[in-house]
Amino acid sequence: MKQLLFLITLTLTVNSYCQDVAILKYNGGGDWYANPTAIPNLVAFTNQNIKTNISKNPQTVAVNSNDIYNFPILFLTGHGNVYFSDEESSNLRNYLISGGFLHISDNYGLDKFIRRELKKVFPSLDFKEIPSNHPIYNQTFKFPNGIPKIHEHDKKSAQGFGLFYEGRLVVFYDYETDLSDGWEDEVIHNNPKEVREKALKMGSNIIEYAFTN
After folding, report:
1. What does DSSP say about strands 59-62 and 128-129: parallel, antiparallel, or unpaired?
2. Where in this chain does the record put each DUF4159 domain (predicted)?
């Protein structure tokens, strides 16, 4: 019995020795594959500036796969519908409460769908705006005013929201800023250098926080 419990615990614990990241593939028709240059560029920046050793080619993992437990952080973005089945919701919840971390970047049209689906994952939790003194804004790079504004959607202020499970931040959601647009190749959105740098620094903070908390 003790050996069985050990194996179950091992299966449900995120591999803390892995320093790779993955893109989360979901169902529903939304383009989970959006912003293809974003994560490779963020990885290159993070490896250079905070001395991580992340694979240059991020893997893709499905929500219902046990492979998600191999990664300390998952990235999710896209435009349009997101759908989690009961099995997928349960698997993602187990991943997050076992030490995993999910970053969601608000591509236009994602908001109402991701809020709905995360209620399946954590029915009793609501997004809370993260204050500027939270550690995620104060890693290697400092953001005294909180999350930076990168990309315009509806002329609203940029906000960083979080889901907290037993006091631990398990989901970080950048809203009305679309950090991942700022990580993409410069020619895609023609963002000024200083805007892209802010986006990459904030993304680096997210990775650093996920790897150490």
Report:
1. unpaired
2. 21-211
| Conformation bin of residue 177: beta by default, left when phi > 0, alpha when psi is -120 to 50 | alpha
Q: State how far the alpha carbon of 74 is from the alpha carbons of 63, 104, 134, 143, in Å.
A: 10, 9, 20, 22
- CA-CA distance, 188 to 46, in Å (whole number)? 21
For residue range 54-67, list pLDDT tens digits in order.
Answer: 999 999 999 999 99
Instruction: Look up residue 47 and give its two tokens.
Output: 């490896």
CA angle 186, 188, 193 (to 5 degrees): 25
Cβ neighbors of 191 (< 8 A, separation 6 or more) are 150, 151, 181, 182, 199
Quick: pLDDT tens for 157-212: 999 999 999 999 999 999 999 899 999 998 887 889 999 999 999 999 999 999 99
**Percent of the chain as helix, strand, coil, to the nearest 5:** 40, 20, 45
Nearest one of 210, 173, 186, 203 to 77, comparing CA atoms: 173
Task: Scan for tokens 């999710």, then name that residue.
Answer: 76
Q: What are the start-end ranges of the H helices in 23-178? A: 38-49, 86-97, 111-121
Identity of residue 94: N
